[in-house]
Design brief:
It is a single chain. The protein is an alpha/beta fold and about 475 residues long. It has three domains: about 80 residues, Udp-n-acetylmuramoylalanyl-d-glutamate--2,6- Diaminopimelate Ligase, Chain: A, domain 1 (3-Layer(aba) Sandwich); about 230 residues, 3-Layer(aba) Sandwich (UDP-N-acetylmuramoyl-L-alanine:D-glutamate ligase); about 150 residues, Mur ligase, C-terminal domain (Protein-Tyrosine Phosphatase, Chain A), CATH 3.90.190. Helix content is about 35%, strand content about 25%. It is built from 16 helices and 23 strands. The strands form five sheets. The chain has an eight-stranded mixed sheet, sandwiched between helices. Helix 2 links the parallel strand 2 and strand 3. Helix 4 crosses helix 10. This is UDP-N-acetylmuramoyl-L-alanyl-D-glutamate--2,6-diaminopimelate ligase. Its EC number is 6.3.2.13. Catalyzes the addition of meso-diaminopimelic acid to the nucleotide precursor UDP-N-acetylmuramoyl-L-alanyl-D-glutamate (UMAG) in the biosynthesis of bacterial cell-wall peptidoglycan.
Length: about 475
């Protein structure tokens, strides 16, 4: 790392690796790439005190250029120094997996808070410090933003820090310098293959949480009902491992005697956690997986049974099987499900509760994994009585091309294409009869739609409530 003397002599006021966000007094990290020099010049023009780069300095920038072997490594080391190593001053916990991360993170934060610990949270929906809530743009922020937020959490007196750890952040080293006290694995299903290319690469990225970043005395809590979870359990060398199975697999540490799935929640009888059944408002078998995983984690790190019960009785997760409208007969559920596995699970639970017709409104994101689109089309067709295929966040792709990929997996006549998401939701709501359920999937908590490179205000909840008056 750059010497403390050099860093102090520079008079650094902040750290930045995005030339668009540079403020006067920042130390700028020029990440390797064709535009590194261009970004460095922009940063200096905005008042950066110096540039950290791993290529030779352009002659006219030599006096402001600090050459290092690896900008990525230097960035992590400097962040740790500049923000006074905030993660060493809290117990840091992470959840990774394809589905269930957000619900699990909210449960973890709620259980810690119920146990009297001041807790910070970083995840897909938001960042939180105690009761203070901040909007979130990424599941796991960039490393500089993450360290800055951790320093703010320490300043606020937080004792525990909960994170959703995405495969991107683990692979890209955006969590460098953190030694996690506990790590949870929910499941691994097809997603992000536009980035990772293969499921094996995707798995290896997730595995890093347990092999590279988990502290020597840390606890690993793993859902072994998932084949990748069982593989992870077998492959990692961790002193403290807890295996969790909703399906009752032999040898698992935590197995329920029974799970009652009700319209308004779950009742779980889990001897390893409590002598008496535990209730939660969360609905469906996929939430039973999340609850079992997080209860097992809570027990393993010493959270009281009373705190576990209190959290499960009160926690709400925006956009995760959220009953947005319910007049006692017709019900509309908003869910973030945007992967094949998540959509299948949500529809299966909705089907088990629905006494009438089950419909779904969904699309797929643009500039993302194309291979899952036809799979999701087939799942919607099989899992619902009728589907409205529409836009999600098309980004720079043509929405009609995305929809064409989706419907290539559909072979019945029980669907309709409406490119406008608002119009699709409107028509689906208007078609509902007594006893019907409607699932609006894909965007969940999001209050925007990305068309081209622009974010437009759009909220599934608002459209639903307006149409169901």
């Amino acid at each position: 790392m750059l010497s403390e003397t050099v860093l102090k002599n520079l008079g650094i006021q902040g750290l930045c690796d995005d030339s668009r966000k540079v403020a006067p007094g920042d130390l700028f990290f020029a990440m390797p790439g064709e535009q590194a020099e261009e970004f460095a010049r922009t940063a200096l023009s905005k008042g950066a005190v110096a540039v950290v780069g791993e290529t030779e300095a352009p002659k006219d920038l030599a006096s402001k250029w600090i050459l290092v072997p690896s900008v990525k490594e230097e960035r992590a080391s400097v962040a740790k120094f500049f923000y006074h190593d905030p993660f060493s001053k809290m117990r840091v916990h992470a959840i990774t997996g394809t589905n269930g991360k957000t619900t699990s993170a909210f449960l973890m934060e709620s259980m810690l808070s119920s146990d009297g610990r001041k807790t910070a949270l970083v995840g897909t929906i938001c960042k939180k410090i105690g009761d203070k809530v901040i909007a979130s743009n990424l599941t796991t922020p960039g490393i500089l933003e993450l360290y800055a937020f951790a320093a703010e959490a320490v300043e606020a007196g937080c004792t525990d820090f909960v994170m959703e750890a995405s495969s991107h952040s683990l692979y890209q080293g955006r969590v460098q310098g953190i030694a996690y006290k506990s790590a949870l694995f929910s499941n691994l299903t097809e997603d992000h293959l536009d980035y990772h290319k293969t499921m094996e690469n995707y798995f290896q990225a997730k595995k890093l949480l347990f092999t590279r970043y988990l502290a020597a005395d840390g606890v690993a809590v793993i859902n072994v009902d998932d084949a990748y979870g069982q593989r992870l359990m077998d492959e990692i060398v961790v002193a403290n491992k807890v295996s969790v199975s909703r399906l009752g697999l032999d040898g698992a540490n935590v197995v329920p005697n029974s799970i009652q799935s009700l319209e308004d929640g779950l009742v779980l009888d889990v001897p390893a956690i409590s002598k008496t059944p535990i209730e939660t408002r969360l609905v469906g078998e996929f939430n039973a997986d999340n609850v079992l995983l997080v209860m097992s984690w809570a027990k393993s790190i010493g959270i009281s049974e009373e705190s576990i019960r209190k959290a499960l009785a009160t926690v709400k997760v925006p956009g995760r099987f959220e009953m947005t409208f319910n007049d006692g007969s017709r019900r509309v559920i908003v869910d973030y499900a945007h992967t094949p596995d998540a959509l299948e699970r949500v529809l299966r639970v909705a089907r088990s509760l629905c006494k009438g017709k089950l419909s779904v409104v969904f699309g797929c994101g643009g500039d993302r994994d194309r291979n899952k689109r036809h799979i999701m089309g087939a799942i919607a067709e099989q899992g619902a009585d009728f589907a409205w295929v529409t836009s999600d966040n098309p980004r720079t792709e043509n929405p009609e091309d995305i929809i064409a990929d989706i419907v290539s997996g559909m072979h019945s006549e029980h669907f309709k294409v409406i490119v406008s998401r608002e119009e699709a939701i409107r028509e689906a709501c208007q078609a509902m009869q007594a006893g019907d359920f409607l699932v609006v999937a894909g965007k969940g908590h999001e209050n925007y739609q990305i068309i081209g490179k622009t974010k437009h205000h759009f909220d599934d909840h608002e459209v639903i409530l307006r149409e169901m008056k």
